[in-house]
Every structure is written in C-alpha cells, then in structure tokens.
Amino acid sequence: MSRRSFALVPTPDDLTYVREHAAVPGRAAVVMTMGALHDGHATLIRAARGHVGRDGFVVVTVFVNPLQFGEGEDLDRYPRTLEADLKIAEQAGADAVFAPAADEVYPGGAPQVRISAGPMGERLEGASRPGHFDGMLTVVAKLLHLTRPDVAFFGQKDAQQLALIRRMVRDLNFGVEIVGVPTVREDDGLALSSRNRYLSPQERRTALALSRALFAGRDRHAAQEALRARAREVPATRARAEALSAIGESRAAADAHAVAKAVPGGPSAVRAAARLVLDEAVRHDPPLVLDYLALVDPDDFTEIDDDFTGEAVLAVAAKVGTTRLIDNIPLTFGAAS
Asked: Which residues take part in binding beta-alanine (predicted)?
C-alpha cells in the first residue's frame, strides 16, 4: 500500500492490515465519529493530519453506537451517509475510514461489562439522557483499543463528552493523548451538527437562540472583565481621585470601581445575560424548549459560584421541534490580575 492511498476498512483485522502495510514511521491519530460528516468533522481530521504530519497515520471511525441512544431517541433515523463520508474524510487528509458493523464492535451482542461515567456523567447531558455517557465511554474505550492511536481528536462542542473522555483516559491509564478542537460554526453562528439537517427553516431561526445566548453571556463576561481590569488600574485613593479630576477622568474611574463592585458576581451576570435570550426564544414560533443553561467547572461539570476564578464552560441544551441541540463556549474568570 502506498503512503497516500486511502482505504475503507470494515473489520479490526482489516484495519490492522492497512495500518501495518502503510508502514508509516510517525504517530497515529484517530477521529471518532458517528458519520454524517460535515466541516466540523473535516476540521478535526485536518487537525489530526497537521498534528501527526505526512509521516503519521490518520484513521476516522464511523460507527453509530447503539449504547449511547436512549429509549425514544433518534437511533433509527440518525443519518447514515457513508459514501459522502468517505469523500470528506479522504479530502481532509485521512488514510483510512474504519466503519465496522455493530457485531464487529460488540461481538455476541451488547457488552455486559461497560465503562461507568461516574458522578460527572449524571449531570446536565447525563441527567437528560440517562446512560448516554456510559455507552459513549464504552465505545470510545473499545475504539481506542481497536485503532491503537497515539493521539485522539474530539470536538469541544461536546464539552461534557470531551471532559469525560479525558477523565477516563487519566483515571484508567490509557496511553493516549486527547486533543480538543474548537467548535466550528455556520455563518449564522449555529454550531455545526449532523442533527442540523433535521431543522426546518423556521426551526433553524429559533435554534439560533442557543448560540446567541452563549454570545450574550460571553459579551457580558468580557465587559465585566474589562471593567474590573480598569478598576485594578485605578486605585481608589483621594490623591489619585484628585489627580484624575484634574484631567477629566474621575467619572471613568468612578464608573469602573462602581461597576466592578456592584455586579453581583461575574457568573450570575453571565447566566442572566444568556437567559434573557433564551426566555425570548421560548415565545418564538416554533418555540425553543430549554433543557438546561449551565455555567460549570470543566473538571467536574458542577455549577460555579460567583467567586470562582479559572476556566469555565457556559453550556446550553434545548429542543426545537423534534430536534435536540447542544452548544457551549469556554470562558475564563479572573484572567487579568
């Protein structure tokens, strides 16, 4: 097999054969998907190729995992577009697509031994979709064993999934590096998702409230951090106030101090700004049905307090029509010191 050839492999043995005959000296990377690839997936594949270079090996998995779909979810109608997926994967730089049947991944039926997501897996998405993260971690663990990568790439759009995979790899000593890739958005701000194709034009307009809510929270956070930074630069002393007054800046200094002290905690204001957008979308036609809005610590996905400093995730989940969508953005509190 030549270095730049591309292969569709349906079984683990086929994947081993292709990888061994590729005879690449570099690192191996995997991008796990459930198919219905779009530019978000292509971005992950390009990131994997860039990471391992031309001497590396990039495999994309396409497997609709039945373990992570609950009763009444869209397992049967989940889009399956393998022919188009192969083209996208090859063009983005993959060496192979591993697209196994269910009995290749779960020989003998559903596994009796599974990975437990623990307490983090019972929050937010886990509370809305019981058992989802146990099924996700089980298949990720199996695919890591089957593909044997040095590094695995996952999108940050599924922030709780990414956090749980990192926790599993750390807690269970998987010898693999996990890389998160920023969310890819469409021109109107909607996060790319295979489920976006289910949305009617009217539903899509309502669905834009998810990203708009996140952006409103982000903008409120940025304004607060800027005001706090300015307040730190302007000491609240009489001598300094008199000096500022002489050059006409006393009002700006006073405003900075007042806002920095009056805001009832950065996280509360961020949640409130996002909630305003979502509350308005509830009245749209069709309406947005909110599942959750949360501002959480990415280490355990618990809600953060107003005195929190460090990395956080503002996350939202909602249903529009019959389609359930999720989105999130990262924020940093107390970055300027």
From this structure: 68
Reported pTM: 0.87
Is 50 annotated as ligand-binding? no
**Strand runs labelled E in 101-176:** 151-155
Q: CB within 8 A of 153, min separation 6: which ones?
A: 29, 30, 31, 44, 45, 47, 48, 51, 179, 180, 181
Active-site position among 41, 132, 221, 257? 41
337 is in an annotated binding site: no
**β-pair type (288-296, 310-320):** antiparallel
Q: Is 190 assigned a ligand-binding role in the annotation?
A: no
Q: Are 56 and 92 in contact (CB under 8 A)?
A: no
Distance CA 246, CA 57 (A): 66
Q: Which amino acid is residue 265, in one-letter code? A: G
Task: Give me the sign of the Cα torsion angle 80, 84, 88, 91.
Answer: positive
Q: Is residue 264 scored above 60 in pLDDT?
A: no
The whole-number pLDDT of residue 217 equals: 97
Cis peptide before 201 (omega within 30 of 0): no
Q: How far apart are CA 121 and CA 136, in angstroms?
A: 10
What Å distances lie between residue 239 and 227, 230, 250, 257, 260, CA to CA? 21, 18, 11, 16, 21
Is 1 marked as binding a ligand?
no
Catalytic residue status for 257: no
Is 37 annotated among the ligand-binding residues?
yes
| DSSP per residue, 225-286 | HHHHHHHHHS---HHHHHHHHHTT-HHHHHHHHHHHHHSS-HHHHHHHHHHHHHHHHTTSSS
Specify the residue for token string 């391992």: 52
| pLDDT confidence bin for 294, thresholds 50/70/90 | very high
Which of helix, strand or coil describes residue 201? helix
Q: At 25, list the tokens.
A: 């000296």
